[in-house]
Amino acid sequence: LSYLRKNFKDFAIISPQQEESVWRPDGPIPIAWNTQYALQEGMQVIIYLDGKRHTATTQQMIAVPNMDRGEHSVKAELRDAKNRIVATAEPVVFFVRQPGLYNRAIVNPNGGG
After folding, report:
1. What are the DSSP E strand ranges found in the chain?
2. What is the average pLDDT score of the chain?
3. With contact defined as beta carbons under 8 Å apart, do 10 and 36 qualify?
4. pLDDT tens profile 56-111
5. Which residues on adjacent β-strands are paired with residue 92?
6. Which terminus in the chain has less CB density within 10 A, N or C?
């Protein structure tokens, strides 16, 4: 396990970034992680959103639909085939923003109504 911990010490969440404002009023929010080495057989990443376990994956990016406006946190754990924690990514706090209604008004450059 110690060699795994050494190899995967760079395990981190790369998107969203710390304190990032994500403008995605309609689409899912991408959450991505990265590490220098490929996952070994049986390894998986556990993604936690706002303190609750969200999903287990081997994909480097997941898309989270229907996130409410406001502050959110994401953290991740890399686990080996025996479900032991190999690495923990630093938690990332990010903000989901939505344009106000005034930003959605369509401006007609030709005037008229």
Report:
1. 12-15, 21-23, 29-34, 44-49, 52-57, 61-64, 70-79, 85-97
2. 89
3. yes
4. 999 999 999 989 999 999 999 999 999 999 999 999 999 999 876 554 445 555 65
5. 74
6. C
